[in-house]
Amino acid sequence: MQARASDVLFEFREGQLEVFFRSGEGLVRVNQAFEEPPEFFVKLKEVCGFRGEEGQPSREAWLSLSKGFSHLKCKALHYSGGSQENVRLRFFNLRDYARTAGELGLEKDEGERVQSFLRLPAGLYLVAGPAYNRTAETMYALMNSLAGERIASVEPLVVLRNERFFQIENQGGDVSDAVYKNLLFFKPDSMFLFDFFQKNYNRQFLDFVGQGKLFLELQGFSYEEIFEKLQVEHEVPPSFLVENLRLVLFQRLVRTLCPACKKPDPRPARELFRNKKLSGEYRLFQEGGCPACRASGYGGEEVLFEVFTLGNEERPAFFKRHLAALDRKISEAGNQTLAQKVLNRVLKGEVSHKERSRFF
User: Fold this and answer.
1) Residues 6+ apart with CB under 8 A from 45
2) H/E/C letters for each residue in 136-172?
3) Rounded Cα distance, 275 and 343, in Å
4) Are strands 72-81 and 84-93 parallel, antiparallel or unpaired?
5) Which strand (E) or helix (H) includes residue 307?
6) What does residue 287 show for φ and ψ, rounded to 5 degrees?
7) d(C-alpha 21, C-alpha 11), whole Å
8) How much is the pTM?
9) CA angle, 352 as apex, 305 and 268 as ends, to 5°?
10) Model confidence over 269-328: pLDDT tens digits?
């Protein structure tokens, strides 16, 4: 909990047990010895409620934690195959899901644009980024900023049920290969259940953008990837995106250097950024390693955002081909892309060149 791990993974194979922590995109093995690994793993499954029903490829359950951890929700996942069994505990900090758009840490001008577009009466709002980059927390922050409005959302995992939100859960791969569930959908004169298939965003659901705000949480490393998923996997027509898109927040987690042990990078900035026109001389830093950062060299993580907005006056000049290159449209509008923001952090000595290379 102190390390803000989002997942704890227990991997049991051939009588041996290994434990991993996930923080952001990183998965770290934990050195911990178990006197009786088989007994420990059986007890772990019992605590999680996975008794009996052996042979099932996957199971899941929500766990209740003690009073000291009441701000956390925990989902336990059990899956097996061949000679291996895994139990994963996924933690959700409810405090992070209670924030509003004004608490996301956006640049001032970005925050003002986001608030402005949230005040529009209807439209399509996307929050995107790779898995484990806190996109769900961002989408809830946007929805928490609205009051008394019709809101619908499509989420890989619905963490909080809200009577004001009409939510559907598009779950697959993490636990099982099931691609449909009974989902709640809002219609002005009634509520009803229908089968939602992964390859079929119900047209009636898409039509919700004409009467309210539809929020989609998407996972991917680029605009090209997320829009291809929408069009190919979910059969959302490009014309629908072009006609209804209001806001896209694309985000990545960036690891910042530990201030206690970061050390100067011996390589000159101009050598590392030969293709950039640097305005001056910069002193860069790289990872060190100390007890404060558990020898990782990193002091924490920061979510950086790329913000794209599309107003009615700009829509006539926006076409399908622009979807896969929104970062170019962002730059052309004089706004900062993720690449520019990470570069600025490197030049300020807050992020290493090695960390920057993970993205660009």
Assistant:
1) 51, 78, 87
2) HHHHHHHHHCCCCCCEEEEECCCCCCCCCEEEEECCC
3) 12
4) antiparallel
5) strand 298-309
6) -65, 140
7) 11
8) 0.85
9) 125
10) 999 998 888 888 899 999 999 999 888 899 988 999 999 999 999 999 999 999 999 999
